[in-house]
Design brief:
Helix content is 21%, strand content 21%. The protein is α+β, with helices and mostly antiparallel strands. Strands 3, 4, 9, 10, 13, 14, 15, 16, 19 and 20 form a ten-stranded mixed β-sheet that branches. Strands 1-2 form a two-stranded antiparallel sheet. Strands 5-6 form a two-stranded antiparallel ribbon. The protein is globular.
Length: 372
C-alpha cells in the first residue's frame, strides 16, 4: 500500500483508519504505520491481503478483515528498502517474500536481530513485537514441528506454473517438467529452436524455493545461466532492466488471474503469456476480466499448492499467557476474517480470495513449525 506521493498515501491511510509514517527513501515512498497488527511477506498473497486489510467491494459486498474493532496494516513485498510498522518502532529492512516474512515474524518473537534480504536494507535490527502476521506461499516444510512456536493457517489454494515472453512460438506454451528442470540447471538452452533465458525470483521468495523443489533442484544445482527477477513481475528483472525476450519464469496462477482481471496490480510485460507444464491442462481458463483458475490444474499434486498466513501459536491459543483475542479474531475462519476460505457469499473473505485467483485450500488444518 504505497505511493510516490505522500499526500495520496495520507488520504489512503485516513480512509483506512491508519496513522501515517513518512518513509524517506530513493523512491520517496510512504506507507501506513499499523495501529494494531502488521502483515508482511509473500508477494503472492500481497494484493489479496492488501484488499482484505484496506477493505474491498470486489465481490459486490463490502469486506474488510479487522482485528476486533481495529484495522490492520499490510506492507508490500517491494518498495522502499525499509519499513516502520508500529508507531515509534524501529525502521527495519522490508521483508520481501515468504521466507523473509516468516523470518521477520520469527525475529519479532525471539528478539534476535533481523536482516532483510532486500538489498541496501539496514542490518541487524531488533524488531521485537513489530510483526504479527507473515504471508507465505509455501508451508513450513522441514521446519514442521507439532510443538513449534509458529502456526501456519491455510489461506487459499494456488498453483505454480510459468510465464514466458516467447511470443507466438507455441513450444513455449507447454513446457514439461523435465525441460523446465533442464532450463533452470542450464543443461537445456533452447525451446522450439529458440534460445531461452530462465528467470528465477529473488532470494527469500517462497515461489523460488517452491519452484526449485518441484523441479528437483536446489540452490546449489541452480544453473549459472539463470537471471534473477522479482516474483510475479514480467516487466523487469530485479536490477530494473527489462524482462528479456524468450524468457521463462515461475508464476503463481492466482497472481496471473488477479493481474489479468484487474483485481491485483498489473505487472505483466508486453506480450507475456502464461504456459502450463501439464499438456492439455491449462493453469487458468478464460481471458481478461473473465479469467478464472482451472480447478483441474490447481488440484494437481505436483503443481497445486496451499498458501498460508503465519502467526505465533501462543498468541492465538486461548488460555495461553500470551493469548491476544484480537489477533485470534483476525485469523479466525469467521466470514470476513483472514482464515475464512468459503466463497459462496459475497461478504466472506473466501469470496474475495476467489476474485484474486485463489480456491479453497486442500485442508483447513493448521500446522505448527519452528521459528525460521
Amino acid at each position: 500500500m504505497k505511493s510516490s506521493k505522500v499526500s495520496k498515501v495520507a488520504a489512503l491511510c485516513a480512509a483506512a483508519g491508519l496513522a501515517l509514517s513518512t518513509v524517506v527513501s530513493t523512491n520517496a515512498a510512504a506507507e501506513p504505520v499499523s495501529s494494531s497488527f502488521a502483515v508482511v511477506g509473500s508477494d503472492t498473497l500481497q494484493d489479496v491481503l492488501n484488499a482484505l486489510a484496506n477493505g474491498t467491494s470486489i465481490t459486490g459486498a463490502n469486506v474488510r478483515s479487522t482485528a476486533g474493532d481495529q484495522n490492520i496494516g499490510s506492507f508490500d513485498a517491494t518498495g522502499s528498502t525499509w519499513i516502520q510498522t508500529k508507531a515509534n518502532g524501529p525502521r527495519f529492512g522490508r521483508p520481501n517474500g515468504s521466507g523473509d516474512g516468516v523470518k521477520a515474524l520469527s525475529r519479532s518473537i525471539d528478539g534476535a536481530p533481523y536482516t532483510s534480504g532486500t538489498p541496501g536494507a539496514p542490518a541487524n535490527v531488533v524488531i521485537t513485537g513489530q510483526v504479527d502476521v507473515a504471508r507465505s506461499s509455501s508451508g513450513p516444510g522441514s521446519n514442521t514441528n507439532p510443538a513449534g512456536p509458529l502456526l501456519y493457517i491455510p489461506f487459499g489454494r494456488d498453483a505454480l506454473t510459468y510465464a514466458h515472453s516467447g511470443g507466438a512460438n507455441a513450444a513455449f506454451d507447454s513446457i514439461d517438467a523435465a525441460t523446465l528442470k533442464g532450463l533452470f540447471d542450464c543443461s537445456i538452452t533452447t525451446v522450439g529452436g529458440v534460445a531461452v533465458t530462465p528467470v528465477i525470483p529473488q532470494a527469500g521468495s517462497g515461489t523460488r524455493s517452491d519452484w526449485l523443489s518441484k523441479l528437483g533442484l536446489t540452490e546449489a544445482t541452480l544453473g549459472s545461466c539463470v537471471q534473477v527477477g522479482q516474483e510475479h513481475d514480467t516487466e523487469k528483472l530485479s536490477d530494473g532492466s527489462a524482462f528479456p525476450a524468450n524468457a521463462v519464469t515461475p508464476m503463481s496462477a492466482a497472481q496471473w488471474v488477479a493481474q489479468n482481471t484487474g483485481a491485483g496490480i498489473d505487472r505483466r510485460g508486453a506480450g507475456v503469456k502464461v504456459g502450463s507444464p501439464i499438456a492439455g491442462t491449462p493453469a487458468v481458463t478464460g481471458t481478461g476480466t473473465a479469467m478464472v483458475p482451472n480447478a483441474a490444474f490447481y488440484s494437481n499434486s505436483t503443481w497445486g499448492r496451499d498458501t498460508y498466513i503465519v502467526v505465533e501459536n501462543a498468541r492465538v491459543t486461548a488460555g495461553d499467557t500470551k493469548y491476544d483475542a484480537k489477533l485470534a479474531d483476525l485469523v479466525s475462519n469467521a466470514g470476513s476474517k483472514l482464515g475464512n476460505t468459503q466463497s459462496a457469499l459475497g461478504f466472506q473473505a473466501g469470496s474475495v480470495k476467489k476474485k484474486f485467483g485463489f480456491l479453497a485450500p486442500s485442508t483447513t488444518a493448521p500446522q505448527r513449525a519452528n521459528l525460521r
